[in-house]
């Protein structure tokens, strides 16, 4: 009966979506173009190098090398193998959904157990520094100093999530941990080099094929990501047109009133639950006297990821045995902890430096923030050309593969 109701529900939602697309074709097209523009200009060119690099590092055994080296850190801190450090670092550098992509690949290569992969996915899908500093703090709030507050709240809370998730199904994974630790008897650096060499020697594909497959797999994933961005851009617009967003935001406004948050932020926050960029843009545009409520909500949606990102992660995990539920729980946890940290750190990381008349951004980031902002603007200029170039390359690789197979 449950499966029958699910069929009715899914069919009903799809039919309603189709009817709305027919009823509002111009608005749906405009929303699609906005989503496509964001994907082609920023998302594709910024994530592609990281995806390709990740595939190559996996193929050449570098991830195995890092796994052995970082085992003494990752295992006690997050209860995952050292190989998880690669997903954590790449996730922080490039943003979502890189962490899910790498966790899925590590699971496919049997470098993680199912439970370890679920733990890893829960804390490796972060927002990138480029997005926090370039798009949010400078692009939307026009204040680079806010990027430090948002970034510290985001990454520290994400680490807390990883530490808390280490206790997820602890008993079930105890035997696997013991087996894994028994493998390390030689000096750690020598053992890491041996593991890297053995992994590379197992790779039977020639270098050209490895490169081609890395490009192809990365582009396939990014095309899927683009599809979700466009879909959710349209869905959010349609929900707004039929006033569903307004009705649900009324409930959110009641909760905000109880929490002392301006109710005008209810609708922007609801939009942010679907798509981060849209929600952050609407929140930044609301004219209220107090800045902290805006930052608290932006921190939450950055940690929550938005349903658009969550759908991308679910699609990546669907090809493996990694369950989506732990990741979803961790998103709520990340959003709540990030919001609390934003409240706690607002005075020391933002207000104190502004009132003391010091430089808006600490010395370590003073030169990097303008650079990140310039990089973000540069991507919007050359991004579409990079997207077209690599889509063409993938078409050529696919053609050659089909010709060879045929």
Automatic annotation (TrEMBL):
The keyword Membrane applies. The chain crosses the membrane at residues 46-70, 130-156, 221-242, 254-283, 295-316, 328-346, 375-399. Residues 42-139, 223-318 form the Nucleoside transporter/FeoB GTPase Gate domain. Keywords: Membrane, Transmembrane, Transmembrane helix. It comes from the Bacteria. This is Sporulation integral membrane protein YlbJ.
